[in-house]
Amino acid sequence: MRITPLRTLQEAGYLLLLTLALGLAANALRPDGLPLFKVFQKDPGAPPYATLSPLAAADLLRKGQALFVDAREPKYFALAHVPGARNITPEQAKAGAADDLPRDKTLVIYCDSLACGRSHSLAGILLEKDYTVAVMQDGIEGWIMTRGPLEVSQ
Asked: Which of 12, 41, 68, 94 matches a 20 to 30 Å C-alpha distance to 150?
């Protein structure tokens, strides 16, 4: 009997199917078997709000679908900020300074950089007040690096 490449492929396919069937059977019989058809849920440690790249945030600004909220201290906001942004610190938001923000737009929150936690603190406060929020990754530094427009307070 002569062995042809087609016959070799055929036999390899049979072996593969047999191996798969035995593996599935062994997994089904094990009490700690792996779930085969599991619906994976969002990481419970992930924040309950979206994060946006500066480019995605700029797109929302261009479309008029977002209001930017700067979580930095007022002296840094005055140096430069996203055009039309409101300056509300987490402390001010707790005191009610954010209660007049529009509810028909996504509030894009940012602070200094990726390491700055103020935007995440403010996002949590605004979520509790039932606003739609997103945090801009890399903060104002990322905005500047992507050449986003800037406004300076007078």
From this structure: 94
